[in-house]
Amino acid sequence: MIKFTIITLFKDAIEPYLKTSMMWKATEKGLAEFDFVDLREFGLGPHKSVDDTPYGGGDGMLLRCEPVFAATESVKAKDPTAKVILPTPVGETWNQEMAREFAKDAHYIILCPHYEGYDERILSIVDYKISLGHYVLTGGELPALIIIDSITRLIPGVLGGEQSAAIESFSDGDNLEYPQYTKPSDFRGMAVPDVLLSGNHGEIAKWREAHSKKAK
Ligand code: ADE
After folding, report:
1. CA of 157 to the centre of ligand 1 (A)
2. ∠ CA 9-23-67 to the nearest 5 degrees?
3. Residue 85 and residue 11 share a domain
4. How many domains does the chain fold into?
5. Does residue 132 sit in the same domain as residue 94?
6. Quick one: which of 6, 188, 190, 199 has the most CB atoms within 10 Å?
């Protein structure tokens, strides 16, 4: 069982995806658990403020330490083994190999920053800084979903047996999937390769191997 506790101001942006399709099936089968902590509850003062202006000047607001530390500590109090992930454009670029490594562990806290950035001291409680690529998003919610999805689909039993086997042999490393087709065998003049209709499993396996796409 893998567990993700998501610390966010915008649960509504994340939850519908986790209640859909494979992520929902993973929950139903007891293979994954998704929990939310509302960062606002740990905000300061009557307005439950979670951000402030940067020292030294500059545009925008930064996530403050106090609410982030308190929210994280509330999760760690129940499970000190939980590891903290911070989605950030300056993190290590996420890839399939990392997803496979992360799928071996049990409980991740994902801290979703928002606004223009976060107080640097927040990094002192972070185990993994993860970037989804060289572009900047408005917050950590979309990266959190991508990280969760790419890890959860690797948990044995989440995908069907047949699909997991396919992942091991083809789509779980630098080799991405081979082209696939379903009925009809001819659609508007675009025919399915004959070998796939041949029933010759040896030849089909060879064709698939040869046509596996390399990740860039
Ligand atoms: N937050 C903002 N942009 C991001 C990115 N590219 N990857 C991860 N987290 C982010």
Report:
1. 30
2. 20
3. yes
4. 2
5. yes
6. 6
Kindly report, residue by residue over 134-177, the tens digit of the pLDDT. Answer: 999 999 999 999 999 999 999 999 998 645 544 454 455 555 78
Best mutation site among 9, 63, 137 for ligand 1 pocket (most ligand atoms within 8 Å of CB):
137
Ligand 1 lining (C-beta closer than 6 Å): 87-89, 131-133, 135-137, 140, 143
The residues, any chain, with a CB within 8 Å of residue 24's CB and separated by 6 or more, are 18
CA–centroid distance, residue 161 to ligand 1 (Å): 33
Of 101-105, 111-115, 188-192, the one with minimum mean pLDDT is 111-115
Within-domain flag for 126: yes
Question: Residue 140 maps to which CATH number?
Answer: 3.40.1280.10
CATH number at residue 179: 1.10.1270.20
CA distances from 167 to 111, 132, 175, 210 (A): 29, 22, 10, 16
* Nearest atom, ligand 1, residue 138 CA: 2
Residue range of the domain that includes 198:
175-214
Does the residue 170 lie in any domain? no
Residue 134, Cα to own-chain centre: how many angstroms? 16
Cα 8 to ligand 1 centroid, rounded to whole Å: 14
The H or E element spanning position 61 is: none
- Please tell me the pTM assigned to this model: 0.91
